[in-house]
Design a protein that fits this description.
Length: about 325
């Protein structure tokens, strides 16, 4: 299967679509009786009053989530290939993205984090263009606005502001204008939101938006470790990919090395941003899938022994399906 997706063959589009539904067999087989979908953060509903909480039946919810994941996988695949992060263009990034979004049942339903992944993939593309741009002020300003729009949908997405500064450190010589441009882009969206609150004589509620920023990072997590055994194959592949990346690191293009460093920091920031949400939901970690999927794809793109990497991927998929059904 891996060998098939190493090629940029049009038939892989159909195979990828079939694989997307295959990885969601468990949730289609045992459909939840009710699924809610909070499309926007409460503070953004005054601006855009769309109530989708009960707009979809459970079947429709899962179906549309599957289609969105497939579309995201195609966009993500194109971004990774366009920036030459792997040894050669392939459908492996899309394949790993779909596999990553199938690890847990909550990943397979409509959620704010799933929608926010569109914005995350967009800013990954923008970040990777920073090193190739002569004047990046406009790009950084756009990134700030994209992060603000993502924050309207899912508040922890705000943590991606940190990635602006990390990306500038990696890709650009220091320029205070560029550092300021990202913040201005972010604040522009919230400035208009504040004006809207003011027009509706509700400015005090606007200040409540920022209360989660004062949350303390949780020191205690209630974890059922059996629910996360499915991550063991992921950890194994990440370790193998890291060893392979280290071996090839200084033989890679500088832009590729910086790209992987950027994605590593993005993975960490996306995971740590859960502290911005008072109630923990496992679908939050959908934000970790795009940067993590690149590393998984890197291993399968560069692995040499076919019998080993095909068997490893088969066992990976088998373990995902096993834990989903069990």
């Amino acid at each position: 299967m891996i060998n098939q997706f190493r090629k940029l063959s049009p038939i892989n589009l159909l195979l990828l679509l079939a694989y997307t539904f295959f990885m969601r067999m468990a949730i289609f087989y045992e459909m939840p009786p009710q699924l809610n979908f909070d499309f926007l953060e409460p503070f953004a509903r005054l601006l855009i009053n769309i109530d989708l909480d009960n707009a979809f039946s459970p079947g429709a919810n899962i179906f549309f989530a599957t289609i969105l994941v497939f579309v995201q996988a195609l966009i993500f695949n194109k971004v990774v290939n366009n920036h030459n992060l792997l040894s050669k263009p392939s459908f492996l990034p899309g394949l790993m993205f779909i596999t990553g979004t199938s690890l847990f049942m909550p990943f397979m339903t409509l959620s704010p984090a799933l929608i926010a992944n569109f914005f995350l993939i967009w800013i990954i593309d923008k970040f990777l263009k920073l090193g190739k741009s002569a004047n990046s002020i406009t790009t950084v300003f756009d990134i700030g606005m994209i992060i603000a729009l993502g924050t309207l949908i899912y508040f922890p997405f705000m943590a991606m502001i940190l990635m602006i500064f990390l990306a500038l450190l990696l890709f650009r010589p220091f320029s205070w204008r560029e550092w300021l441009a990202g913040l201005i882009g972010f604040m522009t969206v919230f400035f208009f939101l504040a004006v809207f609150y003011y027009w509706n004589d509700n400015l005090t509620s606007f200040y409540q938006i920022w209360k989660p920023l004062g949350n303390k990072f949780p020191s205690v997590f209630k974890i059922n470790y059996n629910d996360y055994l499915v991550l063991i194959p992921v950890v194994i592949i990440i370790i193998l990919a890291s060893l392979q990346l280290r071996e090839n690191f200084f033989r890679s293009f500088i832009s590729t090395r910086k790209g992987f460093q950027l994605l590593f920091f993005m993975f960490v920031v996306a995971g740590a941003s859960l502290y911005l949400k008072p109630s923990f939901r496992i679908w939050h970690f959908l934000l970790c899938v795009p940067p993590g999927a690149v590393l998984l794809a890197y291993y399968f793109s560069n692995a040499k022994k076919r019998w080993f990497y095909e068997t490893l991927f088969f066992l990976f998929v088998l373990s995902v399906q096993y834990f989903l059904f069990v």
